Amino acid sequence: MSSNSLCAGFGRVYDGEAGDDMEDIIDTSKIKDNEVISLKNVDFSYNGTLVLTNINITVEKGDFIAILGPNGSSKSTLLKIMLGLLTPKAGEVKIFGQNVRHFKEWSKIGYISQQAANTNTSFPATVEEIVSSGYYTGFGRLFDKAERKAATGEALAAVKITDLSNRLIGQLSGGQRQKVFLARALVKKPEALFLDEPTTGIDAVSQQEFYEMLAKLHKNRMTIVMITHDIDAAIKRATKVGYMEDGNINIYENNGNLSGILASRLIGEGARGRI
Ligand SMILES: Nc1ncnc2c1ncn2[C@@H]1O[C@H](COP(=O)(O)OP(=O)(O)OP(=O)(O)O)[C@@H](O)[C@H]1O
Ligand SMILES: [Mg+2]
């Protein structure tokens, strides 16, 4: 498995060239303390086809945002833009108050891509090696071996897979594999987790276990953005629910009483099958 398949782009380093947005690097007065990600007036197109139009969204510390929407509604694209993996055609993207192009503290961000579930399982790596490889993604000093081993042990314990440490990734069930990816995303002790359909293809019991882990992380102040087709989980676990369609997103507070419009929209979609 290539580390890039999970965290491509997490290695960018500011090259020191002064640009027209240089002020974004140094003007800390603009940074809002509670802001993890902000997108302002973002447009994005693939090969000239506009798939996101005028997106404005802020992810705040402590949010647990579930993003729903039909296939092809640009959920993954939006997440990649938030993480600087795709560059918008127009608009502004900030991470922790800083222009995403100049952001360096990638250890604050954990990411499980939609492709993680399709990882080549014939790759001869152990669970411990996969989790430990989370250290090599992105900018940062090289951690010493003992520090890396300790953090790997903690991440394995946090998702309760210590007993699987020496197993090959190809010898795991889908649910166990997703826990490995969660541990890998957690190994650098991030402040925010971005998950693209992390429970697809795993059984109901494993899904519940996974959600309970997320709930515990969220309780311990982890900010979470999760793309999912699981409406029940979104309504049960998230503090906010985003619904994407037609290149746009609407975010609703999940105050235990989602607005009638959203509820009927989601339940309507749910009745036809999963979103
Ligand atoms: N690399 C690409 N090149 C061109 N078009 C793309 C590319 N990736 C995605 N698209 C198109 O952009 C749109 C949004 O795709 P995206 O993968 O973001 O949707 P999604 O909401 O995540 O869908 P799904 O629920 O199936 O994962 C789709 O129409 C898709 O075909
Ligand atoms: Mg997707």
From TrEMBL:
Name this protein carries in UniProt: Sulfate-transporting ATPase
EC numbers for this chain: 3.6.3.25
Any one GO MF annotation of this record: ATP binding
Keyword check for Hydrolase: yes
This protein's UniProt keywords: ATP-binding, Hydrolase, Nucleotide-binding, Transport
Ranges for domain ABC transporter: 37-271
Family statement drawn from the similarity comment of this UniProt entry: Belongs to the ABC transporter superfamily.
Enzyme class: hydrolase
Keyword Membrane applies: no
InterPro entries found in the cross-reference section: AAA+_ATPase, ABC_transporter-like_ATP-bd, ABC_transporter-like_CS, Metal_Ion_Import_ABC, P-loop_NTPase
